[in-house]
Amino acid sequence: MEGTSPRIRPRRDLARRRVQIEGVVPEVDAGRFAVKRVVGDELRVEADVFADGHDLIAVRLLHRPGAEGSWEEVAMHPLGNDRWAGSFVLPRVGEHRYTITAWVDPFLTWVRDLSKWIEAGEDVSLELLEGALLVAGARDRATAEVSGRLVEWEDRLRRWAADPDLPEGPLPDELTHLMSLAPDRRFETRYGRELRVRVDRELARFGAWYEFFPRSAVGEGDRHGTFADAREMLTYVREMGFDVVYLPPIHPIGSTRRKGPNNRTISESGDPGSPWAIGASEGGHTAVHPALGTLADFRTFREAAEAQALDVALDVAFQCSPDHPWVKDHPEWFRHRADGSIRHAENPPKKYEDIFPIDFETEDWEALWVALRDVFTFWMDEGVRIFRVDNPHTKALPFWEWLIGELKRRDPGVILLSEAFTRPRMMYRLAKLGFSQSYTYFAWRNTREELESYMNELTRTEVREYFRPNFWPNTPDILTEYLQTGGRPAFMVRLVLAATLSSSYGIYGPPFELMEASPREPGSEEYLHSEKYEVRSWDLARPDSLRPFIAQVNRIRRENAALQRTGPIRFHPSDNERIIAYSKTDPEEGGVILTVVNLDPHHKQSGWVDLESEALDLSVGKPSSGGLHSVEDLLAGGHYMWEPGRNFVRLDPSVSPAHIFRVSGPGRAESDFEYF
Amino acid sequence: MEGTSPRIRPRRDLARRRVQIEGVVPEVDAGRFAVKRVVGDELRVEADVFADGHDLIAVRLLHRPGAEGSWEEVAMHPLGNDRWAGSFVLPRVGEHRYTITAWVDPFLTWVRDLSKWIEAGEDVSLELLEGALLVAGARDRATAEVSGRLVEWEDRLRRWAADPDLPEGPLPDELTHLMSLAPDRRFETRYGRELRVRVDRELARFGAWYEFFPRSAVGEGDRHGTFADAREMLTYVREMGFDVVYLPPIHPIGSTRRKGPNNRTISESGDPGSPWAIGASEGGHTAVHPALGTLADFRTFREAAEAQALDVALDVAFQCSPDHPWVKDHPEWFRHRADGSIRHAENPPKKYEDIFPIDFETEDWEALWVALRDVFTFWMDEGVRIFRVDNPHTKALPFWEWLIGELKRRDPGVILLSEAFTRPRMMYRLAKLGFSQSYTYFAWRNTREELESYMNELTRTEVREYFRPNFWPNTPDILTEYLQTGGRPAFMVRLVLAATLSSSYGIYGPPFELMEASPREPGSEEYLHSEKYEVRSWDLARPDSLRPFIAQVNRIRRENAALQRTGPIRFHPSDNERIIAYSKTDPEEGGVILTVVNLDPHHKQSGWVDLESEALDLSVGKPSSGGLHSVEDLLAGGHYMWEPGRNFVRLDPSVSPAHIFRVSGPGRAESDFEYF
Fold first, then answer.
1. What value of ipTM does the predicted structure carry?
2. How many angstroms separate the Cα of A498 from the Cα of each of A137, A239, A426, A502?
3. In chain A, which residue's Cα lies nearest the Cα of B133?
4. Contact A349 B424 (CB under 8 A)
5. A557: contact with B, CB 8 A cutoff
6. C-alpha span between A49 and B502 (Å, rounded)
7. Residue B252: which H helix or E strand, with range?
8. pLDDT tens column, B537-546
């Protein structure tokens, strides 16, 4: 029998590795993609770790800065049922790595068993001798100092083994500590994958964005605005409490097949064209539209913004007007038709004749990729660290993954916002490939059920590990029906929702704060007289502007760390489905913000909101003894005492459609005091 | 600027692969482990597959027999929202492989766009010329015959392009078909992992097991039974409808520190010892206990079993009595104490002094692994194809994975049942590592909620891909409190549950059918006078034996394919929590079995069971129009007409605690007929 079965060798290096590691969280697509965090975050890692039999194991979380750094180790602790957890703080922006290692630990097992034998009244002299052998074995692995102390311990164990009168109680912690410095790791199991966490600066997680067209920054008349005009708007933007000013493309605009007002296919001589029809004789993606000024003017604008603590975000739209220099210099970067002409953008039966899409299947893809990357690096050299990327889902995905890697190597603090209004799998894939943030479906989530279910998807599934939402109630392309029909309260509702549901949000102003609500035509989500095709002028000082309200909401966000993270979020039941209520907790200080919004912009709504104290998660302070919560409405002012159970709210959209409450821990009752 | 950024090359082979593939199901731990199926099963594979932009993609499921076979391709079809599905039938026992490939298909895209342009009334002459170019490009990739027909098509498209009068309607399917034979796959994306499916014979999925101790097969008196006696029991076992007879270890039993009756630490001269204390001077794991007979006698027994269509399963318990030959020949395979003695099994404060565990950390592990493997191959050479493995969770896991690979290479039809009553992660990991089936927590799941939630875990989570439960109401180690206290109805309830919830189940008889219910002591799950330590005699002809009932349940299983799979299973609500109701559907023929059990062995229970026709999943025949179901009780007999809604049941445990209904499609109402 033995002759018939050849001696087949298993993989020698794995044979005696008895520990198994699986179910690691966070891990995206088997480590194919990095998880995302910001600097200073604590990364908590969990895994199922176990070995055969009853022996105890030691589990360590390993982490290092980048692929070349040296590993640091953190002990993981058991949560029960073979689940282990550990964490470490991410000290700097850039890529960090982590994995897990574990081993069966004979010494820990011996300590546990020894105390059980002693408890059971057994003779442990042999066990003590075996302990002495374990200690002796550790000496070679230990530093000289530790080794010296282990020699003493070995002696002591041998003396105890020979002495029927044992010391009482458990072994001193000192021995366990010394042995943990020199464990027997010959058969340790290293988790099969080294996982990556991309650490961004805080602005990738928390920030308020304001988009405006610099050419409309004049304020009166229809003169084409300049960077100098735009600079004048910065104080206005800063006073509203924004962190980022985002400009649509600032490059020369093509004249061939230029679009007229309201997207007319025929333009007249004065029409400025769409900033997204990029490229003219003056240059392409690295040039500045002459009507806006020079590159030096842009630099002055950016410096002025930074002086006001505003980051400048530029728009990168990889498409070319027929007049873009690349069309002449690199015709092979575009698709050609059977008649030799370049194929314009189309989505049958729609045609976009002012735009040529780029052909990512070109034979010259390498030069193309480098040129596209160098658009980013050009503006990074100009001090820009945030980019809003136009329609990334219509460009080849391998390109984005490569590009973002390149840019992050150059400046790990660079932030890219993906404008991918597309199907969910693609939207999420772009985030996995490296986009720091993404536009979302928020603009079209209006009901309580829609909002809750979307937020649960974003904050309670694996999506939260790699996808950072940036909530926009409007954009130059999106004037939702809700805003068109809901009047001033609709704008207030959508602002409060965006700013309190998501830690990153933005508005396209001035149309937002001035409550522009007219669509190009009924049923359209396009703005009438959209700035995409026209220079507009805005009366920023209008007394009905939402500017003070926006400033107030942004101030609340800034002063309350609970609103500086998108998740976790808890929704609180209400008996009126038009009323949505949710709370967030600052994980460090424990402050709680409870937001209650009337989603109906037309009518007063009232109802009962159910507030369990556990649900409010007042993690600082002592557990509630059923006392009252002190809540302060940070929007309308006023203090209330709320009970842990149901509380009545009534929101009149014509006054204020929302409360943003700061909740203080439950008030003490007499019985809480020690002298009671 | 360009000077400062070095030209970094992306991976050339990936750059233009625009399709992304993710979310593949089934896939266990990123392909680390195989999924399990049985021969003849259809393997359905789903994945998220998508590309940038609006181009159409083609998606193919690839599969092959083993790592060296050649790939076959099956088209996958879109389910919506970027989800694709495809399937193939597993033709033979052994390992099969599968993966996915996909590409952006310019021709499919062209066909779609062409019809849209035509519909919009656009001039498509250029499009037709471009189609001609695509067809010309395909010629080089096509067979000579296809190529010839493509030449004709290219001509036709060119003629149409020149002719303003186009043919009406869509392009003939012939061109699409021809082009699908020669697609442009230069930039196809292959999923990054080749996945494995382990295909077993059907007995791995569906079978009823009967365990008995051959030494107790005498029937009267306390003579030590032999294989010849055991052979006499085979007809009895077969007539009850079992598929597998499983014998506890049949090897010589050690005499050193042999256990006496009821696990006493001191034995007397006539005590037979535990069959799990393996090894004596007569030999170890490849020897036969002389009191049972010879190897030739075993062979005769096995052949007799096979003649009755019974597979023989042997027990493999890797532990040694102090008298096992390995202890003398390979002392290095065991752990030694500080005094040089071999360490017996222990779990402080418990000691198992009649057993030495094997040390999988031994330096001589390679020889050990081979010896352990050769225990299996010895019995496989003896014609045994099923093994019940004792406590695999206390042996090193890398060993099992290697071992099962070795055995499957020798006989892909070998079946290993894991006896791992341990924590969930370990139980599931053993299944992932290759065990064909596993013991479960079923014995301790008694309430409706416990049973439903456990079945949902087994059939609705990823567990179903690799873990096959084998439900045992009792074992020689487990006499549950429910059986101890519930009398005859308890045994009937647990039998029906095991046999209808899980497609594999087993009983330890004769104590099961004879309803042995006395524990060794109060609170213990051990049998009083356990066969583990004593030769017992059983009066198999006792008139109250459950034998006819068991035979009936096994016949129902055999005649109804719905019961030959563990999942899917649907639970039907009932207003009495003591009543559990569930149905299964034969995926091929559509037959439905509805089981209703009174879980209370002491009292009659009645209540309403809610039977929605959708929930019954009568997938054959036309959708229900609200007619009646004809149900036949296969246990007690009797036909009933049930309504799609709530139906009343009343189960008296003293008569029969369960119904097993065969459900026929809803009876037709007049309105179903065409002439109505």
1. 0.93
2. 61, 19, 22, 6
3. A338
4. no
5. no
6. 29
7. none
8. 999 999 999 9
B406 touches A: beta carbon within 8 Å: yes
Pick from B133, B348, B381: CB nearest A117: B348
Question: What does the buried/exposed string (b/e) look like for B176-197 if buried means 16 or more CB atoms within 10 Å of the residue's CB?
Answer: eebbeebbbeebbbebeeebbb
Q: Is A40 left (phi over 0), alpha (psi -120 to 50) or beta?
A: left
Residues in A 645-674 with any Cβ partner in B closer than 8 A: none
Residue A43 near residue B384 (C-beta atoms within 8 A): no
**Could you report the per-residue pLDDT of A494-534, keeping only the tens digit for each?**
999 999 999 999 999 999 999 999 999 999 999 999 999 99
A-contacting residues of B 88-117, CB under 8 Å?
A: 112-113, 116-117
CA distance A219 to A223: 9
**Minimal CA separation from B376 to chain A, in Å:** 11
Residues of B in contact with A5 (CB under 8 A): 370, 373-374, 377, 406, 410
Q: b/e for A173-208, b at 16 or more Cβ within 10 A?
A: eebeebbeebbbeebbbebeeebbbbbbbbbbbbbb
CA distance B73 to B55: 22
Residues of A in contact with B57 (CB under 8 A): none
**What string of DSSP letters covers A304-327?**
HHHHTT-EEEEEE--EE-TTSHHH
What six digits make up the tokens of B454? 């456990």
Is the previous residue joined to A26 through a cis bond, with omega within 30 degrees of 0? yes
Of B18, B374, B394, the CB nearest to A1: B374
Cα B365 to Cα B68: distance, rounded to the nearest angstrom: 30
Could you tell me where the DSSP H helices lie in B502-580? 547-559
Q: Do A82 and B426 touch (CB under 8 A)?
A: yes
Q: Decide: B420 and B439 in contact? Cβ < 8 Å.
A: yes
pTM: 0.93
Helix and strand element counts for chain B (H, E): 14, 29
For residues A67 and A647, what is the distance between their CA atoms, to the nearest angstrom? 53
Distance CA A142, CA B263 (A): 45
Q: How far is CA A651 from CA A547, A648, A656, B163, in A?
A: 21, 10, 7, 68
- Estimate to the nearest angstrom the gap between the alpha carbon of A242 and the chain centroid: 18
